[in-house]
Amino acid sequence: MHYVIGIDVSKATSQVAVAVDGKVTQHFKITHDVLGFNQLNTIIMQFNEFPDIVFEATGIYSRRLKSFLDWHNYPYTFLNPLAAKKQLDQLRPNKNDLNDAKNLAETQFILARAKSYVQNPIYIELQYMSRFYQQINHDIVSTKDRLHRILQLTFPEIEGLFSATDSPHYWELLTIVPHAIITRRSRQALMDTIQAGISWHIGHERLRKLVDQLMSMGQISAPAVAANSYNVAQVIYYAKRWIELHGTKGDILTAMVDKAKDLPEYSIYQSIPGFSDKTVVSLIAELGD
């Protein structure tokens, strides 16, 4: 006998249709929790052989079902939603969306869809990490843009202090000198303030030159807001936020390298000229197994 389970996945529940030799014998709903998955497991285990399990990839909502099946080593067919729609439209032109589970089960007897390849979990984890890395990178760009706009009101000249604004040193200085008026203190007072506020070592001569640059910029600056404006608090907030995000980004990359370095393709990709660790682990994460 040929057994098929078709599953139509929604946000918190799934419609399940069980078919035997082309005929649906059961149709019920499960929740995406221990109770629902135990109910599905009971159905699967009642057969003397593994049934064909067919469901669509519905973004994040189908991940729990997929994980449940992976943990139990149940083979399944994980369908691209567009491909599934085309198949069902051709074979069931008058289908009702409420019967998607039934239609998935019945069409499996006609199409005999192949089982999906299950990747090594390390590749799935790397993909999650890569997505998070990209999100953090996007947040860094957004934070940088927001800070640039606020700085135009408090101390725009400071953006020329370094050749690039991607150094944590620059962002840390912004938390100490968020407004031009601060540079109009005495040289020694400004040097002491910076020396006490930074986390990195700086020599006396380098500090003196840095303070001279800041004081020169501050003298010609014409801020649009007063030193007690809330915009100053925003400058400090965005600068600290950038530092935090930059640290998180580095931590993710380090963790990805640590997780991927023992994979066989890691050294192969590293041998390609111009490929950094970031490029290598991102490529592995996106290509998968």
UniProtKB/TrEMBL annotation:
Matches recorded under InterPro entries: Transp_IS110-like_N, Transpos_IS110
Ranges of residues in domain Transposase IS110-like N-terminal: 5-156
Xref: Pfam families: DEDD_Tnp_IS110 (PF01548)
Xref: PANTHER family: THIRD ORF IN TRANSPOSON ISC1491, TRANSPOSASE FOR INSERTION SEQUENCE ELEMENT IS1111A
Protein name stated in the entry: Transposase
Organism, as annotated: Leuconostoc falkenbergense
